[in-house]
Design goal:
- Mean pLDDT is 77; it is low at 7-17.
- This protein has one domain.
- The chain has one helix at residues 43-52, and strands at residues 3-6, 23-26, 29-37, 56-58, 61-62, 65-66, 69-70, 75-76, 81-86.
- The strands form 3 sheets. Strands 1, 2, 3, 4 and 9 form a 5-stranded antiparallel β-sheet that branches. Strands 5-8 form a two-stranded antiparallel sheet.
- The chain is 11% helix and 37% strand.
- It is mainly β.
- A hairpin with a 2-residue loop joins strand 2 and strand 3 (29-37).
- The two termini are 18 Å apart.
- The protein is built from 1 helix and 9 strands, in the order E-E-E-H-E-E-E-E-E-E.
Length: 93
């Protein structure tokens, strides 16, 4: 269901991310951000499944303003992608 793309090379962190740093250290393990590819418009479902197994996720949503009205149904800013913070060596163990 997911295809992982590493984002380790980026040093810049968007202020909207749920974490204030690109990496987070917890004891001996270091958590990195990854980009996971999902089915289009199933990002929230995929993020929920990942959260259920203890992986922190982020899906930026965008509400479009059309003719002065805010679209009531926000859409993913990056359709088909979920950001996840995890230690890849621990996933699946």
């Amino acid at each position: 269901m997911f295809a992982a793309h590493s984002s380790k090379s980026s040093n810049a962190v968007n202020e909207n991310t749920p974490s204030s740093t690109a990496q987070r250290s917890l004891g001996q393990e270091t958590l990195d951000w990854y980009v996971l590819e999902s089915k289009r418009f199933r990002e929230s479902f995929a993020a929920g499944q990942l959260r259920a197994i203890g992986i922190e996720t982020y899906v930026p949503m965008l509400s479009e303003i059309v003719a002065g009205f805010v679209n009531r149904r926000p859409e993913p800013l990056f359709s088909g992608y979920v950001f996840a913070m995890t230690d890849v060596s621990k996933v699946g163990s």
